[in-house]
């Protein structure tokens, strides 16, 4: 899947920026059980609510954020991690991302509007993703647990309340965990 030629969002609504509360972001990363040195891709990193605990966990992080101001803010906020190579910030459309050639994980709170396309990208046949922990719309999580993408198993869907975001979204959310089948 490629996002080639997609128009960059312009309105606040189109950007769908809902900041995750730092405590909930910390829980997301704790429950994802990241091991130091693992490569983690974060789609829609915003200003870094999830990036911060990911870096604290010792992960090597690729943070993708298409909004130029927010990508610049990430670069400023985590300047030392960017300088020492533990963080790479990419200011691109998530759907244009070229998947890493080595095993990687996805831990992210992406815009819900790209859920299907993003899942097609990260679970494609050639993908080396081993596990995904994604904050998504709750209805989508339930559907994916019933019918997970090929080569993956749906492990769990943990509810996230609307008030865990600022501003709160109009829909319910949950964390979907997918693991590659052995
Ligand atoms: C639900 S918010 C996540 C916010 C982040 N967790 C935080 O707390 O700051 C989704 C983010 O995805 C970004 N975004 C929207 N469309 C995108 C796309 N196609 N590719 C990459 N980032 C995108 C938005 O700018 C927003 O920052």
List the helices and strands and how they pair.
Blueprint: H1 12-15, E1 19-20, H2 22-32, E2 39-43, H3 51-56, E3 60-64, H4 68-77, H5 79-84, E4 87-90, E5 104-108, H6 115-122, E6 129-137, H7 138-146, E7 152-160, E8 165-166, E9 173-180
Parallel strand pairs: 2-3, 2-5, 3-4, 5-6
Antiparallel strand pairs: 1-8, 6-9, 7-9
The structure holds S-adenosylmethionine (SAM).
The site of S-adenosylmethionine has 24 residues, from strand 1.
What does the model show?
This protein is α/β, with parallel strands linked by helices and 182 residues long. The chain has a domain at 19-134: Rossmann fold. Helix content is 30%, strand content 27%. It has 7 helices and 9 strands. It has helices at residues 12-15, 22-32, 51-56, 68-77, 79-84, 115-122, 138-146, and strands spanning 19-20, 39-43, 60-64, 87-90, 104-108, 129-137, 152-160, 165-166, 173-180. The strands form 2 sheets. The chain has a 7-stranded mixed sheet with strand order 4-3-2-5-6-9-7, with helices on both faces. Strand 5 (104-108), helix 6 and strand 6 form a beta-alpha-beta unit. It is globular and about 40 Å long. The model has no long low-confidence stretch (mean pLDDT 95). Bound molecules: S-adenosylmethionine. S-adenosylmethionine (SAM) binds at residues 9, 15-20, 43-44, 46-47, 49-50, 64-67, 70, 93-94, 109-111, 114. S-adenosylmethionine is lined by residues 9, 15-20, 43-44, 46-47, 49-50, 64-67, 70, 93-94, 109-111, 114.
């Amino acid at each position: 899947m490629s996002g080639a030629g997609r128009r960059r969002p312009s309105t606040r609504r189109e950007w769908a920026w809902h900041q995750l509360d730092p405590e909930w972001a910390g829980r997301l990363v704790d429950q994802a059980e990241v091991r130091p040195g693992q490569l983690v891709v974060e789609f829609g990193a915003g200003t870094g609510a999830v990036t911060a605990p990911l870096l604290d966990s010792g992960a090597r992080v690729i943070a993708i954020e298409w909004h130029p101001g927010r990508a610049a803010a990430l670069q400023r906020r985590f300047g030392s991690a960017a300088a020492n190579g533990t963080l790479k910030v990419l200011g691109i459309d998530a759907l244009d991302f070229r998947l890493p050639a080595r095993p990687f994980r996805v831990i992210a709170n992406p815009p819900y509007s790209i859920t299907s396309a993003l899942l097609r990208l990260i679970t494609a046949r050639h993908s080396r993703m081993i596990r995904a922990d994604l904050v998504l719309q709750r209805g989508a999580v339930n559907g994916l647990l019933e019918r997970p993408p090929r080569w993956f198993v749906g492990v769990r869907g943990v509810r996230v309340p609307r008030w865990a975001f600022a501003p709160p979204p109009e829909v319910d959310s949950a964390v979907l965990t997918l693991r590659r089948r052995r």
